[in-house]
Amino acid sequence: MKIITQAIVLTAILLGGCSPSPKDTLLYIGTYTDTGSEGIYCYQFNKESGEMTPKFITPHKENPSFLTISPDQKYLYAVSEVTESPDFASGSVSAYQILDSGELEKINQQATGGLHPCHVTVSPDGQFVVASNYSSGSLSCFERQADGGLKEMMQLIQHAGTGADSVRQSAPHAHSALFTSKGLLISADLGTDQLDFYHYDERGKEFQPAEQASLEMNPGAGPRHFAFSPDEQFIYVANELDATISVLKKEGAKYELLESISSVPADFSGVNYGADVHLSPNGRFVYCSNRGHNSIAVFERLDDGRIRLLQTESVRGDWPRNFTLSPDGRFLLVANQKSNNITVFWVDQKTGLLTYTGNQLELMAPVCLQFLER
I need a surface site. Which of 149, 157, 239, 295 has the fewest CB within 10 A? Predict the structure, then answer.
């Protein structure tokens, strides 16, 4: 009987060894370091409980306020949201290799030629990295080296214009940029109330205005961040200044403004600024963060792409600058900049509604959350 039992145990171990190992889910956190943060933090994320366990800290003392991970998941890029980086008379972008352990190994760092870069993105093929310089109102375009590092800046795209708000929109303020799956580069400029569109010209080896060069948003809206529907027929724009979500619909080869919906309840009378926006992995719901109202607004996507406000859930913190959904869409995590905490919510997969899990992480000035699952 003893021999049979040992054989059963051995068989179970062998079978378990043949089964695929569970995916490792890491959370990288960008911060503002002028409040005492040490740089970029990495935590292990528990996909069952929503708890976070510390793993690594990558020293980066120049406000790594926005991070992005390359499509092949091998590299991480971080802005330095400053007016001057060491050795550079501007902000900069750093390239890191993501090691098997999840630790970050710095490859190199390049100047953006602009002030306060606040966002960075990578093209779908991994060839280009683009940073948005807020204070300068420009885009910095880089080609990626074979090792994941950045070549010197290949192009600086300077925006021009003003907006309706004489204080916040007296000059261009490029706030974010994303590529479509086909390589179209779109930029949101808070200062000019525009989305600008660019395509890469192979002959000239630079980005040029696309067939639709720009799209005017509502005066004084202040477009900040945006997200695509899964089929890219719709764009959902988080407007900072008028605290709305704008829905853009693709008509032929061009996008048009379909509607703009407030992200706070009708009876709210305080000051509020929109920040970040994301869609659920299934594309059925739109989420955005409200700074001032300190909530996450949950919208249902209707069949025609329009949205309907379902919920505004308290973030249990102050100034939710950035948030993200876990890769499986079961959790939503919020980086609350002023209250120095990250809060975790369950996402109801059927209704899209949020419920606070009770889990939170204390961390100085968290402002960007990026998941890596591998």
Answer: 149
